[in-house]
Amino acid sequence: MQFEPEKCNIADERMKSFIDSEELWGYINNTHSTPERVREVIARSLQRKRLTLGETAVLINADDPALIEEIKKGASELKEKIYGNRIVLFAPLYIGNHCTNDCKYCGFRVSNKFAQRRTLTGRQIVKEVEALEDNGQKRLILVYGEHPGYGADYIARTVKLVYSVKKGNGEIRRVNINAAPLDIEGFRIVKDSGIGTYQIFQETYHRETYKKYHLGGQKRDFDYRLTALDRAQEAGLDDVGIGALFGLYDWRFELMGLVRHANHFEACYNVGPHTISFPRIQDAAAADIDPRYIVNDSDFVRLIAILRLAVPYTGLILTARENIDVRREVMKFGVSQIDGGTRLEMGSYSESLNEDQDLNREQFRINDSRSLNEIIDELLENGYLPSFCTACYRLGRTGQHFMEFSVPGFIKRYCTPNAILTLAEYLEDYAPESTARKGWKVIEENLWEMGENSRTANEIRRRIQLLKEGKRDLYF
Ligand code: SAM
Ligand code: SF4
After folding, report:
1. What is the pTM of this model?
2. Which residues, listed in sequence order, are joined to residue 246 by a DSSP beta bridge?
3. Which atom of ligand 2 is nearest to the CA of 219?
4. 102, 108, 150: which to mutate for ligand 2, most atoms within 8 A of CB?
5. Among 57, 132, 245, 441, which one is least packed by beta carbons within 10 Å?
């Protein structure tokens, strides 16, 4: 059976709601999954085709454990084919937790009277970034509550400040943002500060549930949030990240919402979102969650595998909200970016604060507090290639332009070599000896796979030599 791809055929669809819950439930309730159809859809995805909503529903409705295994197998095959063994690393940096909204799942909600509010000063931001650079971080996501004090100009100023901090060989080469929706002019201002991705999670695509969880402030407006990244596109900011907070409503519906959102971007702007996030609700101070929709581990793995197949060219982000075992497990099915060395409490990268989380100072509980090096060490042990690559965005290979490059061969020509070079830098500058040993071995194995005497492998070797002689920031 063939499903029609979504079309952006109404000129003004771009700025109005494109989420119709009846339509999404219609697909879920009326799509029948037979083993043949499931295999057909997996095969289509393995040909690097983005799936339609109907095809996604075929995978969602496959409940037979054997078919679920086939979906997982398809997802890991696709990941291997498109992304190889690279995992891109980043860290979050919370800038301020003042917030005028009242989201029932969040420790920063305005009604949490016990929350300890703080906004980092310029000096504190510099200290935090220096500490992150000392650990080897190159990519950060800056996080802000929603507050008049954190407008576009303020965000842009903090971004520029972060880029200006250089310590030793350390520098931050890509700053992403997770903050409130802006108007078009606001997105323009933030884009001009040189950000990578602007992330906004819809939290839930289900209007009624959205209303139930967002009790106050600007964030109550479902449509203003839903159309935020369209305004970003209007402002020329084509590198955007979407997400849903799993646990608020039925995971199958949220998954359809994410795919609808991604397909909307493709249809209207010829470019999908750069990343999709799928945080699961964690414990938070003053949180008030209806437990009905909490997503268990096996459904979580399943939804990630389906997402991988549905949007082959979109990066999937998994964070330290998840515990070590879950992280290990789901990484096989299509995750391309993870955080490492994560701390949520403001100031905690540079100040030695209590090891235990104080939920009145932080947004939610994290379950993987390992250092960046511990995470890299484990990735290397398991045959992954940790990467700090920032080349595409710095060379303007984003948005539609980047999609053109998302063709077979691109990853091998650019991404893997850049992963190797950024890992080599990390090993030279920051890794303890035991991690360095593992890292050089993984680099050798990857070079060997390219063909011992291939031109790319030889060029990478030449650049590694330059790194050893003190050059930095070499990329393809
Ligand atoms: N204030 C901005 C906003 O709401 O868009 C920034 C986002 S917030 C600091 C980052 C994301 O964390 C939210 O979009 C939400 O999905 C997630 N989050 C909030 N509370 C959470 C919780 N208890 N467990 C897991 N994730 C949570
Ligand atoms: Fe504020 Fe964001 Fe937390 Fe909502 S999720 S209360 S907007 S920080």
Report:
1. 0.95
2. 280
3. 7
4. 108
5. 441
